[in-house]
Amino acid sequence: MFNQDEISPKTPDDFIYSNEESRLRIKDVVTGAQPLPYAGKSGVLLYGIYGTGKTTLANMLPNAIEKGTTGHVQALPESYIGCRQGLNGVQVSQTIDKILSTQSLNASGKHYIILDEVDVLTKQAQESLKSSLNTTRGVFVLTTNSVSKLDKGLLDRCILVEMNAADPETYLPIAHKVVAAHDVVLNDEELIPTIKGANGSLRNVINNVARQARRAKSNQAAN
Ligand SMILES: Nc1ncnc2c1ncn2[C@@H]1O[C@H](COP(=O)(O)OP(=O)(O)O)[C@@H](O)[C@H]1O
Ligand SMILES: [Mg+2]
Predict the structure, then answer these.
(1) Is the overall model pTM greater than 0.85, yes or no?
(2) What phi, psi does 106 have (nearest 5°)?
C-alpha cells in the first residue's frame, strides 16, 4: 500500500491548479499582495468540479494567510461551517456575527471563517451571507461546485479561484508515486488514459491508478 500522506499537499503551492492564474491568485492572497478584506472584498471563493482539492485548500488557507501576512501562526483554529447542514439566513448571520463579535487573538486581529459548499445555501441564506461579508474583521474562504447557483453580490465580494481539471500530464508525478508503491512499472502512455478518465478528481486519479497498478501486478505474477 502507498502512503496517502506522501502525496497530500502540505502548502497551498503544492496543489495542482487547473491554470497558473489560480496559483497566482492564491499566492497573492497568502503573501498579502492581495490584502483581505480590501475594497469591499473579504472572501476567497474556490470553485470547480469535485475532488480538485477545494475543501483541503480551504482548510489550509487561514493559517497560510495569517503566517504569510504577519509571520505568526493562527492563535486559534479558524471556524468551519459545513453548509450541508442546511442553515437558513438567520442562522448564517447569527453564526458569523457571534464569531466576529469576539476578540480575535490572531496577530492580524482578523477572524477566519470557512464556508464549505455555499451553493447548498438557500437564496435567502446567501443574501445574509453577502451582508456578513461586509466586514473588516474577518476573512472568508468559500467553496462551491457550482458558481451559477451563487448570488451575484456574493461573488462580487470574493476573489474567485478556479479549481478544475488540469492537463493530464500534471498528475503524472502523483501517478508515479502510486505506481511505485505497488512495485510495478507502468509507462506514461499507459497512465495518461487512466488519468484522463479521472476527470480532474484527485480521489479518482489515485483510486484508478492504484487499480491499474494492482491489475498490472497480478498479470505480471500470472505470466
Ligand atoms: N492538488 C492536489 N494535490 C494532491 N492531492 C490532492 C490535491 N487536491 C486534492 N487532493 C487530495 O484529494 C482528496 C480530495 O480533495 P477535496 O479537498 O475533498 O476536494 P473537493 O473539496 O474539491 O471535492 C483529498 O484527500 C486531498 O488530499
Ligand atoms: Mg469539498
Answers:
(1) yes
(2) -75, 150
Domain limits at 205?
Answer: 168-222
Mean pLDDT of the region 163-188? 95
114 and 207 part of one domain: no
- Tens-place pLDDT, residues 70-96: 999 999 889 999 998 889 999 999 999
Whether 1 has a pLDDT exceeding 80, the answer reads no
CATH number, domain of 72, equals: 3.40.50.300
**Together in a domain, 113 and 207:** no
- Give the position, in ligand 1's atom list, of the atom nearest the Cα of 163: 22
The residue type at 212: Q
Q: Which amino acid is at 11?
A: T
Judge whether 196 and 47 are in contact, CB under 8 Å.
Answer: no
How many whole angstroms from 182 Cα to the centroid of ligand 1? 21
Residues with Cβ within 6 A of ligand 1? 7-9, 15-16, 50-56, 202-203
